[in-house]
Amino acid sequence: MINRDTGELVRLTHEENSAFWQWAVVETLRLAGLRREEVVELTHLSVRQYQRPNGEGVALLVVSPSKSDRERVIPMSAELFHVAAQIIRRHREEHGTVPVCPHYDQSERTWCEPLPYLFQRVQSGTPRALSTSGVRQIVLDAAKALTPTHPQFAEIRFAPHDFRRLFATDLVNNGLPIHIGAALLGHLDIQTTRGYVAVFD
Q: Most-buried pick from 36, 48, 132, 174 (CB within 10 A)?
């Protein structure tokens, strides 16, 4: 497709695909407060359903051990569940299922067992799980894309971890006890959570 204003050739499918994954990564970071290594290790099996005694269903996100070497389970907001559902739907529409693919752990420098990772892309015709550096690049690209319409962002460098700090601040500023915030973030020491919390204008 040709952009009528600039005359540039626009690869519509590629642009839409990039926009979707940028949205999915940023929203998952924002709504779950995960570390980037936790995001890339989310699988289709991470999304669980818990049935309360009254019959009400609660969506849960199982987060694999990372820094603390402890698995944790966090309740999913309706927004976060929507993001996960859109990712799963996209995979199913494209592949019929969430494909099982390999994942390279950059910190451990080893290949993990193939699993149905939520964040994956097709590279040279083969599905591959997104890397932690891929998550970082997506956040940098998202921030850079804002600068033409919001020049004040030009001098600001965003990192995936910033969303974790915003998540912690949002929880505490909305009245959630800090020890519960620490559990949701996977902090073993409540002082770590206190260090995350700030009041933003």
A: 36
Our CA dihedral for 4, 14, 139, 7, rounded to 10 degrees, sits at -20
- Give how far Cα 56 sits from Cα of 21, 22, 62, 73, 84, Å: 31, 32, 19, 18, 20
Counting residues of the chain whose pLDDT is more than 90, the rounded percentage is: 40
Q: What distance in Å separates the CA atoms of residue 160 and residue 27, rounded to the nearest whole number?
A: 11
What is the spatial distance between Cα 128 and Cα 106, in angstroms, rounded to a whole number? 14
pLDDT at 47 over 80: yes
Q: What is the DSSP code string of 134-165? A: HHHHHHHHHHHHHTTT-GGGTT----HHHHHH
DSSP at 174: T
Written as six digits, the tokens of 109 are: 């420098």
Q: Taking residues 106-129, what's their average pLDDT? A: 87
Alpha-carbon distance values, 104 to 28, 34, 83, 111 (Å): 20, 19, 24, 4
Q: Determine whether 148 is exposed, middle or buried from the number of CB atoms within 10 Å of its CB (0-12, 13-18, 19+).
A: exposed
Question: Residue-wise over 61-80: b if at least 16 C-beta within 10 A, else e?
Answer: bebbebeeeeebebebeeeb
